[in-house]
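input
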Amino acid sequence: MSVPYSQILDVRVESTLDALRRRIRRYVWGYGLGVTLATACGIFWLSLGCDWFFEPAVGVRIVLLLAAMGGIAVVVMNFLANRLRFPLTDAHVAMVLERRFPELDDTLLTAVLLAPRLDQMDGLSREMFARTCREASRRIGGTRVDDAFNPVPLRVGVAAAAVLAASIALFGLLTPQSLGTWARRSLLLSDESWPRRTSLGIEGFENGARRVGRGANLKIVATADRKMPIVPRTVDVRYRTDGGARGNEPMDREGEAASDRDRFQHYTYTFKGILSPITFDLVGGDARVDGLRIEVVESPKVESLELRCEYPAYMDRTARRLPVIGPMQIPRRTSVMVEGRANKRLARVSVVASSEGYSGEPMPIEPAADVVDGRTFRYALGPLKQDVTLSFTTRDTDGIESPESTRLTLVAVDDEPPELNVTLSGIGSAITPAARLPVVGKARDDYGIAETWFEYSTGHGKTGRKTIAAPRDNVTELKLDDAMEVRDLDVAPGAKLLFGLKASDRCDARAKPRLGETQRWQLDVVTPERLRAMLQAREQTLRYRFEQIVQEVNETRNALTRISFGDDAAKPSSAKSETKSTAKASDPSADGAEPGERKAGDRTGREPGDQAIPSATASPEEERQRRVAATRLRCERAVQNSRKNANETLGTAEAFDDLRLQLINNRIDTEELKIRMKSGVADPLRVIGERMFPELDRRLLALGDSLADERTGPARRDAAKEQVDAILTAMNRVLSRMMELEDFNQAITLLQEIIERQRKLEKETQQRHKTRLRELLEEK
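output
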């Protein structure tokens, strides 16, 4: 059975412990209430500041209110409820006293702790416990309970609470309207705004957001109401991008607003090259605009343009769709419809049409109504009368305008006159009165040929025309192969005929169609005898030229004969004599040397570039290289001469063909003469030029590759000489036919002279008969 403290401890000990316990409770209450009140007042001022500066939305204010209530609850629990709930036993109080008053020397704590176990002590222990109790009673008598407390935290807490509470009371007394606004906004969650001395706004941000094209610049304009008490000197832009970049930049003040005219003061700032979304606030004076947002979207642009062209009726061309690739050339008077497609949905498209010396006003185009996605637009330009440049500017459904306009240049192409590419075939500068004038070629026009005709005039002032073709269909290219008969024009020898071709197109844009024409050929009309003499003179000139070609081929053969290999140079002189005699057999006039090759006193047969006198110090290899170089030079010259002679031979063949056609077109030909000129001269010359000379080229090139090869070189040299001999044989045969033809022409001329004299004699005889008959009649 435990013994009560009153029977063991002194009354002073018990009163001291009770007094300390009561004082601890009062201290907890005082400090806890002070801290709670100070916290509540601090939350008030913090809430007032946040609400005044930021004016958050209702949702944010609800969160802040709940957070404030939670904070106060935490303070009450930590500084008041939990501390008051803690049990204060005698042992706890005694421990406080022991720690605060070291002079107790643990006597009080020992007495309090051992008192409940007094029944379990023996005699000695009881005596010791009683002695400890008496010592504790003696020592506690000199202690003061108030000295056990540190009054500073309590005083600070109470003072802070008092000051903060007083500040709120003073704030309420001085600005009851502001306190009421806070209470209505923070406690009643009203949408009422704080009264400001500065009013800021921003243009173009609907619901606090605006969209801009990626990479574009955006100029923002802030306004300050000049009717408010304060108009800030500067307004700051505080921004942050989604990429993490932050900044604070001042806006530019645009002049000074006039008080009697301007309601707002404007401030500007430009965000340059926006690539990611930006959130920013405007701060100026005591006002701010928070949570402004710039969203980044793709800028609208025209991805493709296409032209739908309806051509003028005279072109007889179906409508076409042409994709736009650079400047477009369109026939004049073509009706043009432009169809474009953008990369996103469009709200508006405007076009500006400009031409030389004129620039139109922007004209809106609504996107095509029949396109579901809203990305296509059409613009009807109408008939294209002149060069025009169209500039398209697009605006999408996000309100973004294309940073650059899309330009389309249309070049009005005039209908060019017909183009005539015609030659007068088989006719020279002189013709007979019975000639026919054949023309061969093409007439071409981009949009159709209406008519082609001959046009002529004679020296007597007579003019006329003869239709060649007048196609009904829209023919853009017409093959011409026709002739005009001179005998139908009734022209006599001595006259001059001016002759040409013309063509007209189907263009109906002018009063008269466009005309194309060839050159005007001026022809002299001569007698058949005169023309035949002219052609014979030309034929003789061609023969003389052909004889020169034959001579040059002979010289090529002589050059091949002088090409030697190995021991050829050391052969007996009889072999050289045999070579020279062979060359003379091919050309009796040749002596084995090229014209101008030998000089007086030079009997070596060297060509220019050959070593005149072998060097006494030259080695056999050096002499062989010199000989090969000289031989290669002869071979290259032979190739050049062969190609030149081939071209000249073919030219001679064409000239004889032209002579034959002139004889036919002027109707002074004979069957025998045509056969002789074609099969005897022109055709063999073509065989020589087109077959035999190319074969000689091939053999000469093979010889050039083997000049250093003494095994294959001689055989290829001999093959080249054989081909030259074959060419000479064929050319001499043709030359003989030319001479026969000349003799035949002379015979024909002589026969025609005899016939002409016979006609004159007959006329003179008839005239004499008439005269004699008249004399006889007069005598009777």
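quick obs: The first strand starts at residue 200 and ends at 202.
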